[in-house]
């Protein structure tokens, strides 16, 4: 009897119900929607947020507001903000990545006025 080497697609990973249904593999890239231009840009898996902002901002029109940070959003959920050294991540169904500009968050760079 001859044994053959197991191929990557041969093994079935059990799902929650014990069947062979496993979630699809993660995409090898992340998509980020630029709020200034409306364009969707693709970045390799593991790309850092700092580089994402650099790449997006350098392609903007001269008067378009620059991206300040990247966040993951989903209806009914609090956004997840990515710091500069955070790698982009896919949080699953319904979550999407987008940039945030100063126009999206009015007053973000202004100290509140004290009332007298």
From TrEMBL:
Protein name as catalogued: Uncharacterized protein
PANTHER family hit by this protein: MALTASE-GLUCOAMYLASE, INTESTINAL PROTEIN (PTHR36396:SF1)
Region ranges (Disordered): 1-38
